[in-house]
Amino acid sequence: MKDNDDMPGHLARRFQQIAVAVFHAEVEQAGYDLTPVQYAALAAISTNPGIDQVTLAGLIAYDRTTITGVIDRLVQKGLLVRNASTKDRRARELQITDEGRKTLDGIAPAVEAAQELMVRGLTADETDELLRLLRKAIAAGNELSRAPLREVSDAAKTKPVT
C-alpha cells in the first residue's frame, strides 16, 4: 500500500486545507468576511456582469445546485444583486454592487498575500512549475469533476436555472 505522501489525491486535499486556512486568515486579518468560493464568485461576476447562476457555476467550477447558497450570502452582504433576465424570464442576472466593487478592491492585497503564503516554501521557478503542472492535471481531469470548469461560451450554452 502506498504512503499518503505518494498519493496525489491526499496531497491535493492537504494543499486545499492549507489554501483555505491561509485565505481565511489573511482575509479576516484584513477585516473581510468572504470565503474562497464567495471571492471567486464575486470576482467572476465583476468581470462578467449580467451572467446567470449556471454560467457562474461553470466559470468557477462549482456545483450548480449549491451555487444558489453562495449567491444568497453575497446578496445578503450587499455585494451582489439579482435582476430578472432580459433574455430569459426564468433566469436571474447577477450584478456586483458598489459595495461589492469596494470589497474586491479592498480584499485584493489580502488575497495576493494568501497566494504567496501558500507557496512560501517554493522558489519562483518552482511556483511556476507547480502551477503549470496543476493546470495540466486539472485540464486532463476536468470532465471527471462533478463541477467541471466551463468557459463563458460553453457555460452560456447551458439552460439557465433560477
Short précis:
By secondary structure, this protein is mainly α.
Described by strand count, sense and barrel closure, the largest sheet is: 2 strands, antiparallel
Beta percentage is 5-15%
**Poorly predicted runs of 5 or more residues:** 154-162
Summed up, the helix count is 7
Question: Helix/strand-derived class?
Answer: mainly alpha
Computed CA radius of gyration, to the nearest angstrom: 17 Å
Shape, principal axes of CA atoms: globular
Oligomer state equals: single chain
Could you tell me how far the N terminus lies from the C terminus, measured between alpha carbons in angstroms? 46 Å
Largest sheet: spatial strand order: 1-2
Portion of residues within helices: 55-70%
Count of distinct strands = 2
What is the residue-mean pLDDT, rounded to a whole number? 90
SSE string, helix = H, strand = E?
HHHHEEHHH
Keywords:
162 residues; mainly alpha; 7 helices; 2 strands; globular; disordered C terminus
Characterization of this structure:
The protein has 162 residues and is mostly helical. It has 7 helices and 2 strands. Strands 1-2 form a two-stranded antiparallel sheet. Helix 1 (8-29) packs across helix 5 (98-118) and helix 2 (36-47) crosses helix 4 (67-76). The longest helix has 22 residues, at 8-29. The protein starts with 7 loop residues before the first helix and ends in a 6-residue tail after the last helix.
